[in-house]
């Protein structure tokens, strides 16, 4: 492909390329657990040395994580036709094109440098989809949300890079501003976050993402409930069934030796 877009990102924004690389690697398989043609298009359109991420050994796991989010969004769209999904720190996620039902309204909130990349690579925003340049921690984005038909806030691969007090403040603010709404997010267990901060999650010379600062073990719901009295419920979502060893993914939350090792995907519901 000619005229490929050269992308140069560092720090947390660069992780969006790791995510895209793994989604595309899985989508390329004939037995893929995730259908994501838009991700394949993006990889071909970007001038970036994806080989620096090494072999995509975590591609299927990453795709199952993404699929878990997709299913949660689809459940929301069924329950709240014409509702609004707010995607915080979306990167080059292509979820809108995977789940769009022709009615959902979509607001992407991303850092300016990432928005610049998105706008050059992804189709122009249709009337139902908007992109806002700014930080998820600047709560002014909440003023842009019409929650009249229901709201779901989704954030993938973001909260673990924030400080604990930032995560608490963000979740508490969402609970206060969007009564009856919900938030879905992923996290990393404490032991992985500790290894990340020590810098030993990857061998010397391999790609290393920025350190994870906020963590949550599966089932550690009380910690989230303490963030705000406006939080009505917290639950871990079940991973979809994969292939090979990951056919057991839906059962991981019930297997004692595996439960504490998995990366939880959590749904938080707000009081009406």
TrEMBL record:
Alphabetical GO biological process terms: methylation
TM ranges: none
A GO molecular function held by the record: methyltransferase activity
Alphabetized Pfam families for the sequence: LCM
Protein keywords: Methyltransferase, Transferase
InterPro entries documented for this protein: Ppm1/Ppm2/Tcmp, SAM-dependent_MTases_sf, TcmP-like
SUPFAM superfamilies, alphabetized: S-adenosyl-L-methionine-dependent methyltransferases
Origin: domain of life: Bacteria
Name assigned to this protein: Class I SAM-dependent methyltransferase
UniProt organism field: Actinoallomurus acaciae
């Amino acid at each position: 492909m000619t005229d490929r877009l050269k992308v140069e990102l560092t720090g947390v924004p660069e992780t969006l390329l790791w995510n895209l690389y793994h989604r595309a690697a899985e989508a390329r398989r004939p037995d893929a657990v995730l259908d994501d043609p838009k991700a394949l298009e993006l990889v071909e359109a970007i001038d970036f040395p994806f080989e620096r991420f090494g072999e995509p050994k975590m591609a299927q796991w990453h795709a199952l994580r993404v699929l878990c989010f997709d299913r949660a969004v689809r459940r929301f769209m069924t329950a709240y036709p014409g509702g609004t999904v707010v995607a915080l720190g979306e990167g080059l996620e292509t979820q809108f094109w995977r789940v769009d039902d022709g009615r959902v309204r979509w607001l992407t909130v991303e850092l300016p440098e990432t928005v610049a990349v998105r706008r050059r690579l992804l189709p122009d925003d249709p009337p139902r989809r908007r992109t806002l340049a700014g930080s998820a921690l600047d709560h002014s984005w909440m003023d842009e949300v019409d929650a009249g038909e229901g709201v779901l806030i989704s954030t993938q691969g973001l909260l673990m890079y924030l400080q604990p007090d930032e995560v608490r403040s963000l979740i508490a603010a969402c609970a206060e501003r969007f009564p009856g709404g919900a938030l879905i997010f992923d996290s990393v267990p404490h032991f992985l976050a500790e290894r990340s901060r020590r810098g030993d999650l990857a061998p010397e010379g391999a790609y290393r993402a920025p350190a994870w600062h906020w963590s949550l073990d599966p089932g550690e719901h009380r910690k989230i409930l303490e963030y705000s009295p406006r939080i009505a419920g917290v639950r871990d979502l079940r991973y979809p069934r994969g292939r090979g060893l990951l056919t057991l993914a839906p059962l991981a939350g019930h297997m004692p030796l595996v439960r504490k090792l998995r990366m939880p995907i959590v749904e938080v519901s707000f009081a009406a």
